[in-house]
Design brief:
By secondary structure, this protein is α/β, with parallel strands linked by helices. It contains seven helices and five strands, in the order E-H-E-H-E-H-E-H-E-H-H-H. The chain has a five-stranded parallel beta sheet, with helices on both faces. Helix 4 links the parallel strand 4 and strand 5. Helix 2 packs antiparallel against helix 6. The longest helix is centred in the middle third of the chain and has 14 residues. The protein is globular. The termini are far apart. The structure holds nicotinamide-adenine-dinucleotide. Nicotinamide-adenine-dinucleotide binds next to strand 1, helix 1, helix 3 and helix 4. The site of nicotinamide-adenine-dinucleotide has 28 residues, from strand 1, helix 1, helix 3 and helix 4.
Length: about 180
């Protein structure tokens, strides 16, 4: 039996958008299975990290299904941050299935895995000015068009959890 080659993508996915989906599809063109690590899993209910790890799991799962990606080809694992960057790779390895390749455009993630001896691949950016979590959350807050940036199943989850009202409520100033 030939061993499977697995690739790891870690991201906060706040929320998962079409740029992330492009990366996931590219990874699956190169490896047998992708591990999607939900970074900063302990964070939620802030303007930068509005959604819980459970909500993000649901969004990712539905986005992959919508894009026809079979569950036998992915794992979704929440990963909490650790206060010491030098220990983070060990934390990731403890929580995920074994993997050989890391895919990340984040310099800190790249550096930590390079120093741990891993092969790191930088996926090409997919219209980053528009397809970024920061841009999506800004549009949600400002009432601009955001739905076209996400898989429609993720739009549905955000509706189900009343996500837009959460973000707008969190942005209010006490008076
Ligand atoms: P993110 O959701 O912004 O991005 C995830 C990945 O998708 C990145 O590799 C990014 O380059 C890629 N991407 C995003 N938009 C794209 C687009 N339009 N086209 C192509 N690729 C695109 O998440 P992130 O901030 O990179 O997540 C890193 C996570 O790792 C964070 O949760 C961070 O806290 C965690 N981390 C923790 C420690 C620690 O705890 N000490 C250390 C390092 C990293």
């Amino acid at each position: 039996m030939v061993d499977k080659v697995r690739g790891l993508l870690v991201g906060r996915m706040q929320p998962i958008h079409d740029g992330h989906m492009d990366v996931i599809k590219r990874i699956l063109d190169e490896v047998d299975e992708v591990i999607i690590g939900i970074g900063s899993a302990q964070l939620s209910h802030t303007l930068k990290d509005p959604f819980t790890a459970g909500e993000r799991t649901m969004m990712i799962n539905k986005a992959l299904t919508e894009n026809g990606i079979t569950p036998s080809r992915y794992y979704i694992t929440p990963i909490q941050d650790v206060a010491r960057n030098s220990l983070w790779v060990a934390q990731v390895k403890m929580l995920t299935p074994p993997f050989e390749v890391i895919y990340s455009g984040n310099p800190l993630v790249q550096r930590l895995f390079i120093e741990a001896g891993y092969k790191v691949t930088t996926p090409p950016l997919y219209n980053r000015e528009v397809y970024s979590g920061t841009e999506v959350r800004k549009r949600m807050l400002d009432g601009d068009k955001w739905k076209s940036l996400l898989p429609s199943s993720v739009v549905d989850v955000i509706g189900e959890i009343d996500g837009i009202n959460r973000i707008r409520h969190l942005s209010k100033k006490e008076n």
